From TrEMBL:
Its EC number is 5.4.99.25. SUPFAM superfamilies: Pseudouridine synthase. It catalyses: uridine(54) in tRNA = pseudouridine(54) in tRNA; uridine(55) in tRNA = pseudouridine(55) in tRNA. It comes from Molothrus ater. It is an enzyme of class 5 (isomerase). The gene is Pus10. GO terms for cellular component: mitochondrion; nucleus. The keyword Coiled coil applies. GO terms for biological process: tRNA pseudouridine synthesis. This is tRNA pseudouridine synthase Pus10. Residues 306-537 form the Pus10-like C-terminal domain. Keywords: Coiled coil, Cytoplasm, Isomerase, Metal-binding, Mitochondrion, Nucleus, tRNA processing, Zinc.
């Protein structure tokens, strides 16, 4: 049984004559059976040969199976218009009809016979897919891809396959489509571009079962593990350059792009250019290249894994993130680095992104239940950890330093991290501040602070952070305070505040930029000697049993 319909006979002849591979012939004939594309190339060639030979065994013109075949009229009209047609530089050359496709020699038509078409296609690189549906569907290439995947040592239970094609393939496909469209028009049959099976889709139909069998896991479009192949074809790189003259607005330099001739830019230009202008610059059908595509890269990438927990910081000489100014490191480590060092090693990730519910200054400790944090581990090789393994990892972090401790370490989803950032303005924090005053104080001088509730502050952006934050006046609330007298010049103040309150500036006033402040309330100069974060009231991540 033939893989294509009788109405496609002339299209099959046209494409094979031009050097198109059997699988691309199926694509242009709108064949949607995935199984057919998986047949060996030689078998498909043989089927197409038999299909074309069948026309030679019939007498006269083949009657195509269409509702209202206007074949004779169209042929006459086509011959009358033939004198005005351009060939290589302006329009599509005269093509053989279905009836005389296999008998071209007797009619003086330059088209090849079915046998000759088969022979010419058998050993050539496809003029449309540039060999992607030929050599790169073979078991040897599949094994090469799987060897790359296995050597990368990833954990995965399924995969998604992606392919990056050279942009000039879109140009060649357009040229082939214009030829097929003209042929179908000659036969009085419609052909929409959407009817053609896309190259990527056909390639995945062929490659997916082979990869799944070799890797031992199923293909899944929603998988977080991606196997990708990047193809290039240097021989034809310049074939899409004419589009820059015809549609200059489509080709603009972009960051991180080595060339303006990206696939999307080329597709956009092809949508704009008129058919007659396209045909003036590009042959239809496209010529056969000498060389196959190159598989430039075979890449693997695992979707990010997210780890969350809470950290305590016990050092007054440790920043939350690396402290580097003008390329010079100011302190040897940070909270972020002490945690990430172990996570990166265990998850075997390429990189990470650290985030937390607020941050403390380098000289501020974080006590109590700690501060919630999350870490995105990018492209991890290992993704599966049991609860017991996470406990051991947490213990390893805690054993490595006396400056920090981590608790409730667990795997979370990307969406769950959003809960850490929710209510940034609404959540509360509790602090403990050691305060000095220039004038002597007695217990009764600070006792009134305990009675103050919901004290509203106006805080201009502090001078110490003005270099990295915009100038603004922020309204913040001190919900409550409790004082502990120490001596005539020192007392400790416990505060429960709105998130985002600058505590140091509330104590010393920041040259009047925070009003009111402890100095103005006590009517004397006050300064802060030590500050501790005692709690961050965010109920995330979930508390784990010891």
């Amino acid at each position: 049984m033939s893989p294509v319909a009788e109405k496609d006979r002339a299209v099959v002849q046209l494409l094979l004559d031009a050097g198109t591979c059997p699988r691309c012939v199926l694509r242009f004939c709108s064949v949607g059976s995935q199984l057919l594309y998986r047949h060996p190339l030689q078998d498909l060639l043989k089927d197409l040969q038999e299909f074309l030979k069948s026309s030679q065994e019939k007498e006269g013109t083949v009657c195509l199976d269409v509702a209202d075949p206007p074949c004779k009229r169209l042929r006459l009209e086509h011959k009358e218009e033939g004198a005005d047609e351009l060939s290589h530089n302006g329009a599509i050359p005269q093509l053989p009809s279905a009836g005389n496709a296999g008998n071209a020699g007797n009619a003086g038509n330059p088209a090849l016979s079915g046998n000759t078409a088969l022979e010419s296609s058998a050993g050539r690189v496809c003029n449309v897919c540039l060999g992607i549906l030929q050599e790169f569907c073979e078991p040897d290439f599949v094994k090469k891809v799987c060897q790359k995947v296995n050597s990368a040592d990833y954990q995965f239970t399924s995969f998604v396959f992606s392919v990056s094609l050279p942009p000039q393939l879109s140009v060649r496909e357009r040229a082939a489509w214009l030829g097929v469209k003209q042929q179908m028009r000659n036969l009085g049959l419609p052909l929409a571009k959407d009817d053609i099976v896309q190259l990527k889709e056909a390639y995945k139909w062929i490659i997916h079962p082979q990869l799944a069998e070799e890797l031992g896991v199923p293909a899944d479009g929603k998988s977080l593990f991606e196997v990708s192949v990047v193809f290039a074809h240097p021989e034809t790189d310049e074939e899409c350059h004419f589009l820059a003259t015809a549609c200059p607005d489509c080709f603009k330099p972009a960051k991180n792009k080595q060339s303006v001739f990206t696939r999307m830019a080329v597709i956009k230009a092809l949508e704009r250019i008129k058919e007659e202008d396209f045909l003036k610059h590009f042959p239809c059908p496209p010529s056969s290249p000498k060389n196959l595509c190159d598989a430039l890269e075979i890449q693997c990438n695992n979707g990010a894994v997210f780890v969350a927990g809470r950290y305590n910081k016990y050092s007054r000489n440790l920043p939350q993130t690396p402290w580097i100014i003008d390329g010079e490191r100011k302190l040897e480590s940070s909270v972020e680095e002490l945690i990430s060092e172990h996570l990166m090693a265990e998850f075997k990730a390429d990189s990470f992104n650290f985030s937390s519910s607020g941050r403390e200054d380098v000289d501020v400790r974080t006590l109590g239940n700690g501060r919630p944090f999350a870490m995105e581990l990018v492209n991890p090789r290992r993704i599966r950890f049991s609860a017991e393994e996470m406990k051991r990892l947490q213990q390893a972090i805690n054993d490595s330093s006396d400056k920090i401790q981590v608790r409730d370490l667990q795997l979370v989803t990307r969406s769950a991290i959003g809960r850490m950032k929710e209510g940034e303005e609404e959540k509360t924090k509790t602090y403990s501040a050691l305060i000095w005053t220039d004038k002597a104080i007695q217990r009764e001088d600070i006792a009134f602070l305990d009675d103050i509730k919901e004290l509203r502050l106006e805080q201009k952006t502090p001078l110490r952070v003005l270099h990295r934050r915009p100038l603004a006046v922020r309204c913040r609330l001190i919900h409550s305070m409790r004082s502990e007298y120490i001596d005539q010049h020192h007392f400790r103040l416990h505060l429960r505040t709105q998130a985002g309150t600058y505590i140091k500036e509330f104590v010393h006033g920041d040259f009047g930029r925070t009003k009111p402040n402890i100095g103005s309330l006590l009517n004397r100069t006050a300064d802060i000697l030590e500050l501790d974060v005692e709690s961050v009231d965010v109920d995330w991540p979930p508390t784990l049993a010891d």
